[in-house]
Design brief:
The chain has 217 residues and is of the alpha/beta class. It has helices at residues 14-24, 32-41, 45-53, 59-73, 87-99, 114-122, 163-186, 199-211; strands at 3-7, 28-31, 78-81, 105-111, 124-126, 132-134, 190-194. It binds adenosine monophosphate (AMP).
């Protein structure tokens, strides 16, 4: 099974897709955002201050977290969600994967418009178990308002899911994405998927790529 690196704007559905793929295949979902939120839960207030602004954290901090997680997997395929977000991260990640002897990997770029991203983020509520919902979308609403279907815990809004922070995050993405796309295109491992539709269609396209990467566009 090919490991997957998702590169995608905020709210492209990469977290939801990753969770579904993890439940259906032997994947381990590695989300850098979740890893950072776990560090914050443990009391790292410095990280919390930066994350609240919507700005990116230092490349070295991120890649050392990723390296630690990947080496603990001992060859199990993974879905990397949230990294690389800069060309420097892409270069360090390539070296890291080579050292870890991870060769069967594809990069999937999920595409959505800014308006769709904004609507999805403003409606997003999350549970500490990692499941996320959207109060404006019937497909993703929790069964009971404000409560997680899976573990009955209270759903909350992420502190960086506000309109001004979303614009910062979308702009950070746009500023950095082009060199990353060129980098992976040269390596011929990049695939693009339209992520504006419903989750079944997006999932079908991603599954097609995991099973057959001869369909590169
Ligand atoms: P996410 O959950 O992927 O939307 O990430 C939430 C926030 O965590 C981002 O807005 C950044 O502040 C930080 N973050 C996550 N991944 C990275 C990364 N690869 N590089 C830098 N900052 C990151």
């Amino acid at each position: 099974m090919k490991s997957i690196i998702f590169i995608a704007p905020p709210a492209s559905g990469k977290g939801t897709l990753s969770k579904i793929l993890e439940e259906n295949y032997d994947y381990k979902h590695l989300s850098t955002g979740d890893c950072l939120r776990e560090e914050i839960e443990k009391g790292n207030s410095e990280l919390e201050e930066i994350m609240k602004t919507g700005k990116l954290l230092n490349d070295e901090i991120i890649l050392s977290l990723v390296a630690e997680k990947i080496s603990s997997l001992k060859g199990r395929p993974f879905i990397l969600d949230g990294c690389p977000r800069t060309i420097n991260q892409a270069e360090i990640l390539t070296k890291l994967l080579k050292d870890a002897k991870v060769t069967d990997v594809i990069v999937v770029k999920l595409n959505i418009t800014d308006n769709v991203a904004m609507e999805r983020i403003l409606g997003r509520v999350v549970c500490s178990c990692g499941k996320s919902y959207n109060i404006y979308n019937d497909e993703f609403k929790p069964e009971t308002d404000g409560i997680c279907d899976k573990c009955n815990q209270k759903l909350v809004k992420r502190t960086d899911d506000t309109e001004d922070k979303i614009l910062i995050r979308i702009n950070e993405y746009k500023k950095n994405i082009e060199p990353i796309v060129n980098f992976y295109n040269k390596k011929e491992i990049l695939f693009e998927v339209d992520a504006t539709g419903n989750i079944e269609d997006i999932l079908k396209n991603v599954k097609g790529l995991i099973q057959d990467d001869s369909k590169r566009t």
